Amino acid sequence: MDRVAVTFNAGSSSLKVGVFRLKDGRALRLGGGVATLGDRSRFTFRFSDGDETVDLPSGPAIDARLVSQVVDCIVRRGFDPVVAGHRIVHGGQVFDGPVLLEPKVVLRMEDLTHLAPVHLPPALAIVRAVRSAYPDMPQTASFDTAFHSSQSSLAARLAIPRELHDAGIRRYGFHGLSYKYVAGELRKHDPDLAAGRVVCAHLGSGASLCGMVDGVSIDTSMGFSPLDGILMSTRPGSLDPGAVVHLLRNNFHDADHLEDFLYHRCGLLGVSGKSGDVRVLLEDFHPASREALDLFCFRIAGEIGRLAVSLGGVDAVVFTAGVGEHQPEIRSGVAHHLGWLGLSLSEPANKMNATVISARESEIVALVIPTDEEQVIAEEAIEVISRHRL
């Protein structure tokens, strides 16, 4: 049987699973799938030799039964799962790289839940479910925040009293697994360009930007939480703290209701009043939908300008994730605001979602590079179990 790594990427309402063959210290993708949690649904694994579906149990909880059904599907295909790798959104100031999920490590992760109350609980639920169903299977964690641990104290600091900063209230940055993957792919495509000043725009349901030099994170748009930075599908991005205080005092009874509002009712959805899905808004001709998209592009361009200050200039802009990879209109809208910086796109290349989409005369190279967080999780899982000789 082929030895495989199984990767789990848990969101608040979805679960992505990847399957990777372990060969010569590398992770080769064999297949994967996505399940939407909360209702009875079908999990569809897409393998190179055909699909297989699993009927998931109903209910919102991630439990050992669900994990067991998913892993059993992998075993039926003749694979031997030897490690489970997990995406963990927040590692705080504790974790700056992938780790083996020993009991004491899980306890330290649970202590960080207050830093990411929306994202950490479902990920930890998956960890516990795997342990319950397969107690002998080693598990590893890959942290989104780890990629940004290279940033300077100046980039990480918020303008608050020092004792609060020392207690962990600081800028962390997220989407680090995506940025790590894209940095590696850019290095394969153009090593000289990858060694320069690159802004990567991860534009999906959650969205952020990262400024890198030689593939190392220098600055990023998200700060203390995944709410910060540019507006997203249902999150507002940067918001005046005075507005937050006003909302808490006048519109919401407690922090829990305000948190739900900020995570699920703002952003593109809030501005348009229709949807947080860029594809839906692009097909809608109501002024509010157009305004939401215009604001999205305007804020992305503004953040690229800010990151240009952190980097001392920009040599390349990379678009990635669902919107960044597949929506030429958004990329064009961003570039419209950055002509002063020397960025111009080739309209035919942009419409084709080509790898290089900048015009010949552009002073900045613009690229589209698909991301693959699960690939990074699998590679880091192999690295960890090799280090521990498991």
From TrEMBL:
KW Magnesium (keyword) present: yes
Protein name per Swiss-Prot or TrEMBL: Acetate kinase
Reported cofactor(s): Mg(2+); Mn(2+)
Lineage of source species: Bacteria, Pseudomonadati, Pseudomonadota, Alphaproteobacteria, Hyphomicrobiales
Keywords: ATP-binding, Cytoplasm, Kinase, Magnesium, Metal-binding, Nucleotide-binding, Transferase
Major localization listed first in the record, in broad terms: cytoplasm
Site (Transition state stabilizer): 175, 235
Provenance organism: Rhizobium sophorae
Top EC category: transferase
Active site: 144
PANTHER family noted in UniProt: ACETATE KINASE
